[in-house]
């Protein structure tokens, strides 16, 4: 499921801070995948990553607090689960969430649209893999698998989320505190991740 990110042309038209906001929104929506995995296997430092993600959101507000994101890169990397070490499926979406946070920081530091596109692709492929593993089977042809993924509610919701975020970013001139707050609320998705996982205790 590595077809071109549908919103790529619009992403290329966004300025630096809006690219960062797109990355932050997608990372936020994936984050319950890491929280739940972290809790189940007692891996990583959820609080540390949440503090960094909070710092990203704060940096988007004009005059907001600025965190030294370069220093945070190693901390984020230290929270990436090794898929060779964890056989369970949950390690993969957890890793995707942390990779997305890492790319978000790089996007902020380097103003690189390709990092934003990478975050978009990671999130979509995470959804595609979940659908294929949970509902696909060995008897299905590649075409059937692609059709299953493309038409699945989770993938439709995923693409609609990307479009909604982009639409909001393109229709605002300045990212006010209220705008950033509303975008984060949208990304929180009532506590459900891009693959429908929720951590009720959190």
UniProtKB/TrEMBL annotation:
InterPro entries, per the entry: DUF416, YP001051499.1-like_dom_sf
Domain of life of the source: Bacteria
Record protein name field: YjaG family protein
Organism of provenance: Neptunomonas phycophila
Lineage of source species: Bacteria, Pseudomonadati, Pseudomonadota, Gammaproteobacteria, Oceanospirillales
